[in-house]
Each structure stands twice: as C-alpha cells, then as structure tokens.
Design a protein that fits this description.
It is built from 11 helices and 23 strands. It has about 425 residues and is an alpha/beta fold. It folds into 3 domains: about 140 residues, FAD/NAD(P)-binding domain; about 120 residues, FAD/NAD(P)-binding domain; about 55 residues, 2-Layer Sandwich (Enolase-like, domain 1), CATH 3.30.390. Strands 1, 2, 3, 4, 5, 6 and 18 form a 7-stranded mixed β-sheet that branches. It has a 5-stranded antiparallel β-sheet with strand order 19-20-23-22-21. The radius of gyration is 24 Å and the shape is globular.
C-alpha cells in the first residue's frame, strides 16, 4: 500500500520519541507522535527531573550542616524543615513539563495524539477506533517499574519512582529494595534529608560495573552518612503492623532477620512496555528485556525502528536522545548509521557522585592481561580541591600498554573535619 497518513509515526512521547519525531520532522517528513499517558515520558515526570530536584535539596541540606568546613558559622543553630521538599520537587516537574507540552511540537508541524495504539500490520495501527497508516514507525514506549514477586508485597503500600514524589511529607524511615544506581541515588538523597534509610540488595556487591575500589568507597561513605546497606540479603516476606511495614530477610552469612520502616521504595529494575501493542501482528520480535533491534536500531520488521529504554542496553536520557536521532535518520535516509556505545559516559548522582566510562581495571585485565597500565591521581593534589574543601577523591585511568584509553573513573567526596 502507498496511501500513508504519515511518513513517520512515533509511538511514545518521552525523550527518545520526542527526539526521533523532531529529527524526522527536521528532515522534511510528515510526522505524528502517539502517547498513552503524558508527554515528556519518564524523564520529565518520574525519573530525571524529580530525582535530581530531590538530590539537589539533599545536597543543600548537607552543605548547611557543614558550613564550618569552609570557615562559616551560624549565630544560632538551625534545623532545616523538609516539609515542603516534595511539593518543591513537584513544582520543578511542572516547570519542566511546560517545555514538553503537545503544543510545543504541534507548532513545528508534528501531530500529537493520545491513546493506546495496537498494530494491525507493519504499516497500520488502530487508535481510538481509527486506523492510521505510516510508511515508517519508531517505537519508543519506554519502561515501567518492575515489581518483584515477594510474598506480601501487594498488601503493603509500596512506592516506586512513579509514586514516591506524590508524598506530601518525607517518612521517618524507609526500606529501599535494590542497590543499583536508582536505589543508591534515592538512598543518598533521602538519607541526607533525615530519613532513616536501609538498602536491601540481593547481590553481595553493589554496582558491579563500577571500579570495585570506588564502589567499596562509596558504600563506606554512604554508611558513614548513616545509610544502612544490607548487601547479599534476600527480601523474603512483607507484613504490616498498625504503623510500620516489616520485611523478613535472609542474609547469605548472618541468616534470617527482620527490618521495619514507615515506607518501602522498590527500585530493583524496569519492565519493558511491550504489552498491548500487538507487536506480533507487525512482525516485531521482542523479549523480556524489550524490543530486539540490530545495530541500526531496526526491528525484525524492516520499516519499524525502536529506541530508548524499550531497547536498552542503557536506560539513560542521554542514551535515549542519542538513539532517537539514530532511529529517525535511519528510518528516513538512505545512509544508515550504527549505534556505538563505546564512548558512553555514566554518572551516579550519589554523594559522593561517581563518573565512569569504558572498562574497569578488573574487566581490562580479563581482556588484556598484563598489557595494561593503570594511572591514579589523588584529588588532594589539586589546588581547586583545597579551595573547595573537597580533598578526598581519586581519578583512575586504565590504558592499554600502547597508550589507548580503555576506561576511566572519577570520584570526589567532601572532606569532613
């Protein structure tokens, strides 16, 4: 068939979908984007924007508590109130959403529709009782929180990244299920805002993709901040009392036990939004981790591409933006580009924050043996470190013996006195 309503139809109006639609429109194509919830996607409403606003508030609270580190003092002690922190976070989200309004994209010629589409075949979808046809499709439906099948979890009012920012006041205590990047960032923020925080992580080691030396230091200093970290610990069963949630756990070494808190935040991972799309009818292959694509971001249906969290392998806004450009240009241009993740930079917004890229020393030695060189630089050797009173930290560079950079990590912590 040649009678198409659109040159490109994008499903999902998050970062990946928006960038893909704007790119395709910029290349002169007639574009429509469909969203079943709210434009802006996870990044605006549930992840990047609200979490970083929360982290910023926690950082300021911590700075106030350590004014003496830079020679400042208060005439009288103060204790910052956190009663308006979450309302502030929501206000930031609303301001960010103003940039993602449908009208913003309609002004440049992109039609924005709402609803839950499903494929009829690889060129047609059904939406709200209407059939729409497109020459090319780009799927960017993202992910949602993965909820583990722990006994009793459905009987408690657990929180996820989609609900935690609806809180009006911070709880006094919180259990965070999952010690990955999201769990650690939330723990760092809530802990510094005065919430008694416990991380429960099944793996014996946090952040396996981060240099072990730095991951261990991060764990140590988060514990120094009062955050309880239970690694190598399995969450077994939830139960409730009148005012507390109780979690029965099993530790790989110390055996069974119980912990309790006012709130539970689930951050163990994400689940791909593939349901309801009738991908089988379009000939699009997918699995538990999302839609399967090649290095051009093309699915098993040659006219359908996918990008963003729905394809992975990294669920980051920056990666979604990068993939959105690749998917759109490959969909409409004769020259196809391949994705390249070798130079991806990762940042964990804990306190201290961690930035890294490439291979860890352990990974480099597994691949290259003794043909590597490791260079370390202590942050306290920099004059800027003295000025900022941030003299604890390291930079570590892992190089091939021929000088090629294989990996790097950078970590800095505020010096306490």
């Amino acid at each position: 068939m040649n009678n198409y309503d659109y040159d490109v139809l994008v499903i999902g109006a998050g970062i990946a979908g928006f960038v893909a639609s704007v790119t395709a429109r910029g290349l002169g194509k007639q574009v429509c984007i469909i969203e079943n919830r709210k434009t802006g996607g996870n990044c605006t409403s549930f992840t990047c924007i609200p979490s970083k606003a929360l982290i910023r508030a926690a950082h300021i609270s911590h700075q106030i508590a350590h004014l003496t580190d830079v020679g400042l003092s208060l005439d009288r002690p103060i204790s910052p109130s956190t009663s308006k922190v979450m309302s502030h976070v929501r206000s930031v989200v609303q301001q960010a959403y103003e940039k993602d309004l449908p009208e913003t994209f309609e002004k440049i010629g992109i039609q924005v529709l709402f609803g839950s589409p499903d494929f009829i075949d690889n060129h047609r979808i059904s939406l709200n009782g209407q059939i729409l046809a497109a020459k090319k499709f780009i799927i960017a439906t993202g992910t949602r929180p993965l909820i583990p099948p722990i006994q009793g979890i459905e009987e408690i009012n657990y929180l996820t990244n989609e609900t935690v920012f609806e809180l009006n006041e911070l709880p006094k205590s919180m259990i965070i299920l999952g010690g990955g990047v999201d769990g650690l960032e939330y723990a760092s923020a809530f802990g510094r805002l005065g919430v008694e925080t416990t991380i429960v992580e099944m793996s014996p080691r946090l952040l396996p993709n981060v240099e072990k030396e730095v991951a261990d230091l991060l764990t140590e200093y988060m514990q120094e901040d009062g955050i309880r970290i239970l690694s190598g610990t399995k969450a077994v069963r939830f139960s409730k009392t009148a005012d507390k949630t109780i979690l029965a756990v099993e530790h790989s070494e110390s055996g069974s036990g119980q912990i309790q808190a006012d709130a539970v935040l689930v951050t163990i991972g994400r689940k791909a939004n593939t349901e309801g799309l009738s991908l089988e009818k379009a000939g699009v292959n997918y699995g538990p981790k999302g839609i399967i694509v090649d290095e051009k971001l093309r699915t098993s249906a040659p006219n359908i591409y996918a990008c963003g969290d729905i394809v992975g392998p990294y669920q980051l806004a920056s990666m979604a933006e990068y993939q959105g450009i690749i998917a759109a240009t490959n969909a409409v241009l004769p020259i196809k580009n391949s994705v390249n993740y070798k130079d991806a930079v990762f940042v964990i917004f804990t306190e201290p924050p961690v930035a890294y890229l490439g291979l860890t020393e352990e990974q480099a030695r597994q691949k290259y043996g003794d043909r590597i060189r490791v260079y370390r630089f202590n942050y306290n050797q920099m004059r800027r470190a003295l000025v900022d009173a941030t003299v604890r930290g390291i930079a570590k560079l892992i190089c091939h013996h021929n000088g090629k950079l294989l990996g790097a990590i950078y970590w800095v912590k505020l010096q306490r006195k």
